[in-house]
């Protein structure tokens, strides 16, 4: 968790130096989610996420050096500098995805492949509270339940979709209940032991052939949605700190 925190703070600094450009969504505050999940699943299991990818790139086998180099678009990056912040990959890590929610049906596809090939692997498929009302997510829930796919739908609920609080955008903010025929549980995403034990429960559920499950992690990010809109940070201290870097951030606003 400390390595991820340091990696992200370094990325924040490099963004302000304009060494990292383009999207840069930081995971500061949410580290317990990544590390709690990875404490249970194997590297042979599969993981796909959305915008905040750097922590998982590390837990899935990337080195801090390869990750920072990738963010900076250098050839030494883990995708030769061609992917950047949102497209970091390893053999069983399918990166982030720029289209809100679209990693969810992709994750179900990976789960279908596992099932089809008779592998006992599970897929961890992560989305945020901001994507949770996407139509494609409900379509995926239905097919995953119908076909009993070995997939854990993890809703990382950090309370804000960019700057919009969950209660302003979601009629039902109990995201673990939104799976209809997919059962769900909710634990604190700020407590690594809660995340670990809930993941253990969810993985057992999947591996025993019972099909998909939703796992809502209630967490919080301390910085803005992305470095380009750091001035929108919900955290007063972080916001003040970030305002100092706004000059650099504005110059890349065309990327947002
Ligand atoms: C990880 O893989 C090993 C070896 O295949 C297996 O024994 C173990 O049960 C797996 N862990 C989980 C959580 O499934
Ligand atoms: C998976 O197992 C089923 C049932 O045993 C078998 O019919 C099928 O051919 C297997 N699929 C693969 C890809 O091995």
Can you offer a commentary on this structure?
With 256 residues, the chain is an alpha/beta fold. It has a single domain, classed as 3-Layer(aba) Sandwich (Rossmann fold), CATH 3.40.50.970. The protein is 38% helix and 12% strand. It has helices at residues 2-16, 31-38, 54-59, 64-71, 103-116, 135-146, 166-169, 192-207, 236-243, 246-250, and strands at 46-48, 123-128, 151-157, 160-161, 164-165, 184-188, 213-218. β2 (123-128), α6 and β3 (151-157) form a beta-alpha-beta unit. The longest helix has 16 residues, at 192-207. It is globular and about 50 Å long. The chain starts with a helix and ends in a 6-residue tail after the last helix. It binds 2-acetamido-2-deoxy-beta-D-glucopyranose (NAG) (2 copies). One 2-acetamido-2-deoxy-beta-D-glucopyranose is lined by residues 40, 42, 203.
Output the keywords.
38% helix, Rossmann fold, alpha/beta, five-stranded parallel β-sheet, 10 helices, binds 2-acetamido-2-deoxy-beta-D-glucopyranose, 12% strand, single chain, two-stranded antiparallel sheet, disordered C terminus, 256 residues
Summarize the structure.
The protein is of the alpha/beta class and 256 residues long. It has helices at residues 2-16, 31-38, 54-59, 64-71, 103-116, 135-146, 166-169, 192-207, 236-243, 246-250; strands at 46-48, 123-128, 151-157, 160-161, 164-165, 184-188, 213-218. One 2-acetamido-2-deoxy-beta-D-glucopyranose is lined by residues 117-118.
